[in-house]
Amino acid sequence: MKAWGLYRLARRTSLRVSASAVVVIGQRSPMYSAFALVVTLCSLSVIFALLGSPFIAVLQVIVYAGAIMVLFLFVLMLL
Known about the structure:
- It is a single chain.
- The protein is mainly alpha-helical.
- Helices cover 89% and strands 0% of the residues.
- The N and C termini lie far apart (47 Å).
């Protein structure tokens, strides 16, 4: 992929991270906020992959978007 394409992909991903982070804060429903947090964490892993850190990108998805969000959703279901 050319450098210009990577720049456009990084820019779109950073806008997606910013928008979903605003949704996490501004959403009244905790479930929608949790799903927006998953989108934020997965988009951050794309940014890490674009920066050349594939291990951190995979770790971000497995640990944060996977394990911690499952625990968070489990607590939400108990409420």
